[in-house]
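stage 2 :: seqdesign
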C-alpha cells in the first residue's frame, strides 16, 4: 500500500499488473500514458489521490462501468431504440428525434442540478406518472443482470484485454476494427442524418460548441 509521497512510475506499473491484470508490456504502455496525463494536468506527485491502490482501482472500474452501462453505451442505445420504435410506428423522424434525443439535455440538466426528485418536481404530472409507470418496463431485472455482467467483465480485466486486442489490429491510434465499424454505423444511423439537418437550423447551437472538429 503506497502513500502518494512514495509513489513513482515503477509503483504505477506494478499496480497495473497486480490490480488490472495487465501484462508487463501493456502495463508499461498504460503507465506511460497515465504518467504523462498527470504531468500534463499538473499532478506530478499524484496529489489527486490520497491512497492510489484503492482509490485508483475504484475510480477506474466505476468510470468504465458508468461509461458503458449508463452515460455512453446505455443512453445512446436507449435513444436509438426509442427513435426506431417511433419511426417504425409511423411517426415522423423529426418528431422522433426531438422526443428521444433533443430533449435529453433538459432532463439531464434538471437531474444534475438537483437530483432525480428535482427533475420529477420540474416536469409535468403526466410525464412524472409515465416515468413511474414505464421506466421499470424498459429497465428491467434483466437489464440489471446485464449491468452486473458488464461490471464483472471490467473487474476481471477482460474488457481491458478486449479493448487492447482490438486496438492492436489497427495500431494507428484511432481504434481497432470493432470500434471503427461501430463508429461508422453510428454516423450512418438515421437519427444522425435527421439530426444533422435539424441542428443546422438551430443557430443557437453554433454559438458555443463543446466540440469543434476543426480544432479537436
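stage 2 :: out
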Amino acid at each position: 500500500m503506497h502513500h502518494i509521497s512514495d509513489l513513482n512510475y515503477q509503483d504505477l506499473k506494478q499496480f497495473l499488473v497486480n490490480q488490472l491484470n495487465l501484462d508487463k508490456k501493456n502495463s508499461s504502455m498504460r503507465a506511460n500514458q497515465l504518467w504523462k496525463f498527470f504531468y500534463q494536468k499538473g499532478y506530478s506527485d499524484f496529489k489527486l489521490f490520497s491512497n492510489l491502490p484503492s482509490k485508483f482501482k475504484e475510480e477506474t472500474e466505476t468510470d468504465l462501468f458508468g461509461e458503458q452501462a449508463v452515460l455512453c453505451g446505455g443512453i445512446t442505445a436507449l435513444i436509438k431504440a426509442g427513435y426506431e420504435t417511433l419511426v417504425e410506428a409511423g411517426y415522423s423522424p423529426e418528431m422522433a428525434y426531438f422526443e428521444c434525443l433533443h430533449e435529453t439535455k433538459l432532463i439531464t440538466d434538471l437531474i444534475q442540478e438537483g437530483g432525480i426528485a428535482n427533475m420529477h418536481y420540474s416536469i409535468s404530472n403526466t410525464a412524472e406518472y409515465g416515468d413511474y409507470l414505464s421506466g421499470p418496463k424498459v429497465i428491467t431485472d434483466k437489464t440489471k443482470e446485464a449491468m452486473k455482467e458488464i461490471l464483472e467483465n471490467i473487474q476481471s480485466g477482460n474488457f481491458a484485454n478486449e479493448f487492447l486486442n482490438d486496438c492492436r489490429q489497427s495500431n494507428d491510434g484511432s481504434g481497432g476494427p470493432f470500434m471503427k465499424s461501430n463508429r461508422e454505423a453510428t454516423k450512418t444511423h438515421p437519427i444522425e442524418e435527421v439530426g444533422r439537418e435539424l441542428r443546422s437550423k438551430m443557430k443557437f447551437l453554433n454559438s458555443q460548441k463543446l466540440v469543434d472538429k476543426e480544432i479537436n
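stage 3 :: structure notes
- The CA atoms of residues 126 and 177 lie 44 Å apart.
- The chain has twelve helices and no strands.
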